[in-house]
Amino acid sequence: MTTLIESEEHQALRKAVSALGKRYGRDYLTQVIAEGRYPTELWQEAAKLGYLGVNLPEEYGGGGGGIAELSIVLEELGASGAPLLMLVVSPAICGTVIARFGTEDQKRTWLPGLADGTKLMAFGITEPDAGSNSHRITTTARRDGDDWLLTGRKVFISGVDHADAVLIVGRTEDARTGKLKPCLFIVPRDAEGFSRNPIDMELSAAEKQWELVLDDVRLPADALVGDEDAGLLQLFAGLNPERVMTAAFAIGMGRYAVGKALEYARERSVWKTPIGAHQAIAHPLAQAHIDLELARLMMQKAAHLYDAGDDIGAGEAANMAKYAAGEACVRAVDQAVHTLGGNGLTREFGLASLIIGARVARIAPVSREMILNYISHQTLGLPKSY
Questions:
Q1: Cis peptide bond N-terminal to 57, omega within 30
Q2: Phi and psi at residue 131, to the nearest 5°
Q3: DSSP 112
Q4: In this predicted model, what pLDDT tens digit does every residue of 2-27 receive, in sequence order?
């Protein structure tokens, strides 16, 4: 049964991470972005306090928790104005996949570093021609003796410039059917034939976006993560936490925006009355708060199901949580900017940049339309149109 009230341990974690986030805050992240660098100080302090690896197994240096705990970390950092996007990728996707399906050597090589912040891993699935259809991935892996040769392209891959390796989703040919099946490979950043090009984004973020080119990248046999014949299961073992964490990212951003709007609405007076006293201001902010709280409940359910080992139930709930959080975030940011009026578009108040950031939660890592497809087909049993 899903517990809807957070435990004392979770409440304590939320309070502690919130305190860390507030020591850095939006001004810190804005400066980092302006300087074109990575939020190393916050990342390293979060690692030192045990937050980066809170979901990873204790025997490999982690905190022994789950996605529920990691989502609290990301949400609270976001609510303080200083979210760490790579929490979605390095510990949540890559760390989870390696912890569940990696060899003992892979676990000992990667998990302690992912937990203590000394190693970072990016995740490469999106391709220029596949869009949201992961079945059309064309990056292929073929055997060459005991090695693998990986060829293909990836786009919108976060944080590659700071990552030690990228967990790449490729496809191999099934010897029995001839069909391509997904597999996951750890590709070192300096592998021969592996190159990257920056993508010029309007979105201002500390984590840059990259196009990756893999030109017959030779990998040893042990670069393959998990069972060659269970790639789809292993892939979604990483994608479900990704959706939960994207929800946490969106909820944190929405909470930050609403918080800034509330400060303004309490202090800004027109006709001798704070504007927050007017229902035209107060009610939309109240609705934004309600929407964010409802999205959090679904996120908590998804995290609980995933941590309990219910991959099917977690898949449905994680998609719903990501959808609800993305919609709630966009509305919250829009209402926050509107509450401040012209001030909402100034650098001084720092809300305008969130307009683009909030849209990301609707688009990535899977669009809201594809989530609606998933729910209509998998949950409601309606026929596919494709």
A1: no
A2: 60, -130
A3: H
A4: 556 789 999 999 999 999 999 999 99
Residues recorded for the chain? 386
214 residue type, one letter: L
CB neighbour class for 218 (10 Å; exposed up to 12, middle 13-18, buried from 19): middle
Locate all alpha helices (DSSP H) within the chain, ordered by sequence.
8-34, 40-48, 67-79, 86-87, 96-101, 104-116, 231-267, 279-307, 311-340, 352-363, 368-374
Separation between Cα atoms, residue 118 and residue 112, nearest integer Å? 8
Structure tokens at 386: 């494709």
Q: Which residues pair with 149 in a beta bridge?
A: 142, 218
As a whole number of Å, the CA-based R_g of the chain is: 21
Average pLDDT over every residue of 68-80: 98
Res. 231: pLDDT tops 90: no
Distance CA 191, CA 148 (A): 13
Please count the other Cβ atoms lying within 10 Å of the Cβ belonging to residue 71: 31
Considering the entire predicted model, what is its pTM? 0.95
What pLDDT is stored for residue 178 in this prediction?
A: 56
Per-residue DSSP letters for 192-214? TTEEEEE---SS--SS-EEEEEE
Q: What is the phi/psi pair of residue 147, to 5°?
A: -90, 170
- Give the DSSP H or E segment for 170: strand 165-173
CA distance 73 to 75: 6
